Amino acid sequence: MNVEYNYEKTVFSDILAPKIPNLIVKNLLGSKQKSVSVLIDTGYDGFLVIPEEIYEDLELDTFEVVEDEIPIVETITGEKITLRTAHSLLEIKELLAETIIEVDTTPHCTEPLIGRQFLELFIAVLNGPDKKLNLEYLE
What we know:
This protein has a single domain, classed as Acid Proteases (Cathepsin D, subunit A, domain 1). It is 7% helix and 49% strand. The chain has helices at residues 52-57, 116-119, and strands at residues 2-9, 16-26, 33-40, 48-50, 72-74, 80-82, 84-92, 97-105, 113-114, 122-127, 132-137. Strands 2-3-9-4-8-7 form a six-stranded mixed beta barrel. Strands 5-6 form a two-stranded antiparallel ribbon. The longest helix has 6 residues, at 52-57. The radius of gyration is 15 Å and the shape is globular.
């Protein structure tokens, strides 16, 4: 199954970047959910990182991983950050897909980002001249 997305401007600059709209993030009980638009960040090796406000609204602290599994990441500037990580459900309506993922948060996160673990679920074709991203879901 395929879906195609257009580039959008980022919060950080006027640069156009691939952005995937309307991903539904839910807590594991399905009792709380939030639709988010996410930027692709190939430098982030996780699945999804969201601002703390969204993390707390979804009550993901209830589903956090055990302390010795919490990742410490290094930013592009060399700063080391301990993430908060929880299990969550991710729904991609256009692809009729739902999967359990690990969601990270940090006080530094201002915009939802997806990383390489997300992209590993797809064949992704980035068409720069036409400013389009095509994802083919690998079921």
